[in-house]
Amino acid sequence: MDARIFQRIRENLLRQRQNLLDWLQYTPDSKKQIRLGPAEETAVQAHLQILDTALAKAEDKTLGICKICHDYIEPDRLEMDFTANVCLSHYSVEDMRRLEAELELAHKVHKALLPQELPQIPGLQLAAFIQPADIVGGDYFDFFRFRDGALGLAIADVMGKGLPASMLMASLQASLRILVPENTCPAAVLQRLNGLFCHNVHLIKFITIFLGRFEPASRALEYCNAGHNPPLLLRGNNRDDRHWLQPTGAAIGLAESFDYHAATVTLTPGDVFMLYTDGVTEAMNTAHEEFGDQRLAEIASRHHAASPQIAIRELRTALQAFIGKQMFSDDVTIVAGKMEH
């Protein structure tokens, strides 16, 4: 195999490894808990061990050697999954069928279109806002339809900035647009996503994502939160009745071999939910103080009776006033919804 391929893979793996080590060392425990959800740090350590093994093999040029014929596997496959160790010609019928499904998905991903619009859902008002810190960003939100017709809504954040984060997010967006219509459960979608991205050499750190499934008839919001900032839910009969939709799984690409689970809340008339990225709560003023969850909750409560559009506008105004004349250092994304009476 070309030495330049080994060099490229090794550089990406080293960057991913160092980013995870820095995250483990310098991230406060409270923020680690959000990104990991119910997973333990040992799951990250297991992922680091996989990276270390791959790096050692890349160093002595044994990475990607087929365990059957002892020749190198296809370079493109190695970049998609650095743990791959069997040539295509040695795959069983079942393995080939599974790979063909993956290749079909990849083909669809390349063809997927990226436009997005607010869906019209009876009884549910929606509004959204996104502002990249750079020309391109790593934040993302979107709406879909699950296989049974239920509304899907997602908000996500690639841990990183600029073009690399934006390109990875575009790949995530396209993957979701293929996977969601094939499934009926958010947890199943994120389980598949983690499998697709966890061993991809282009994933430099990890991705946080909240994926919800809303059924208008029952007003049930089933969700899977993969290490994303907990969305805020305000109950209609009491604006001070605040609930945070905590993570139900680890961030995509953060933990090795993790099973994702879903949770469900039933929305009632007047309920308001607000999804956001950490560019909102971690926005800093000149005194290096973060905007924080509580300010977000207070503003949302204050405008509980307003439309989602007005609530987002007021939150943006408060954010700008908080940071003053500074520029935002991270992407800012907000999605708000309100159940009509």
3D architecture notes:
The chain is of the alpha+beta class and 341 residues long. It folds into 2 domains: 3-111, Four Helix Bundle (Hemerythrin (Met), subunit A) (Up-down Bundle), CATH 1.20.120; 124-339, PPM-type phosphatase domain (Phosphatase 2c, domain 1). The chain has 10 helices and 10 strands. It has helices at 3-26, 29-36, 41-59, 75-80, 93-111, 162-179, 186-197, 278-281, 292-302, 308-323, and strands spanning 124-131, 139-145, 151-158, 207-215, 220-226, 232-235, 238-244, 263-266, 272-276, 332-339. The strands form 2 sheets. It has a 5-stranded antiparallel beta sheet with strand order 1-10-9-6-7. It has a 5-stranded antiparallel beta sheet with strand order 2-3-4-5-8. Helix 5 packs across helix 6 (162-179). The longest helix has 24 residues, at 3-26. The model is unreliable at 109-115 (pLDDT under 50).
Order of helices and strands: HHHHHEEEHHEEEEEEHHHE
What name does CATH use for the topology of the largest domain? Phosphatase 2c, domain 1
Q: In what range is the share of β-strand residues? A: 15-25%
The CATH architecture term of the largest domain is: 4-Layer Sandwich
Radius of gyration: 21 Å
Low-confidence stretches: 109-115
How are the strands of the biggest sheet laid out side by side? 1-10-9-6-7
Measured distance between first and last alpha carbons: 64 Å
Largest sheet: 5 strands, antiparallel
Give the beta-strand count: 10
Query: How would you describe the shape?
Result: globular
Proportion of helical residues: 40-55%
In round numbers, the mean pLDDT is 86
- Number of folding domains? 2
Structure annotation, total helices: 10
- CATH homology-level superfamily of the largest domain: PPM-type phosphatase domain
Q: What is the CATH class name of the largest domain?
A: Alpha Beta
Structural class, by secondary structure, is: alpha+beta
